[in-house]
Amino acid sequence: MSDEDKTQNFIKWHTFGTPEIKPDEKREFLGNFRERVALALTIKQLNLTKTAQIVKKVLQDNPDLRLYINGKMAQSLIDQYMKMAIELDYDFTILVQNGKRIVQRVTMNDFGIVIASPNEKLAKRIIL
Q1: How far is CA 80 from the centre of its chain?
Q2: Which of 3.40.50.300, 3.40.50.261, 3.30.1330.30, 3.40.50.1100 is the CATH number of 3-116?
């Protein structure tokens, strides 16, 4: 690598930060890669009446995964799924991901919860 390439890389790294692999995918799935996601539900789906029962069953059947909760959705939904995780002694994380240069509003089509493996690719996804 030439000195000019090294200089360009140095400038890019200090301007834009450490490069990330698939940043859009990780943003969409609350910090997870798609291949690690077992179940992802939109905020609109979480507002349906039977969704909580389904999520509870999925959590009980998959104790080795982790629940990721979108911290930008309504507080009542955050509380509901956080309480469920605590009752089941299930690992969870609440994420509030702001854009680096733009603050984006949460929509009903954004994922509200994601159940994923924290560190390995899953062989099978949960399909509802």
Answers
A1: 17
A2: 3.30.1330.30
**To the nearest whole number, what is the mean pLDDT of the chain?**
82
Side-by-side strand order, sheet with 66-70: 37-42, 111-116, 66-70, 92-95
Q: How many CB atoms lie within 10 A of CB 26?
A: 15
3-state secondary structure of 34: helix
* pLDDT, tens digit, 9 for 90 and up, residues 32-73: 767 788 888 999 999 999 999 999 999 999 999 999 999 889
Q: What is the pLDDT of residue 12?
A: 72
Rounded to a whole number of angstroms, the distance between the first and last alpha carbons of the chain is 50
Q: What is the pLDDT of residues 85-107, one digit of tens each?
A: 999 999 999 988 665 555 677 88
Q: Which residue blocks in the chain are alpha helix, DSSP H?
A: 3-16, 23-28, 43-46, 51-61, 75-87
Q: Which residues contact 76 (CB under 8 A, 6 or more apart)?
A: none
DSSP 3-state of 55: helix
Say what the pTM is. 0.76
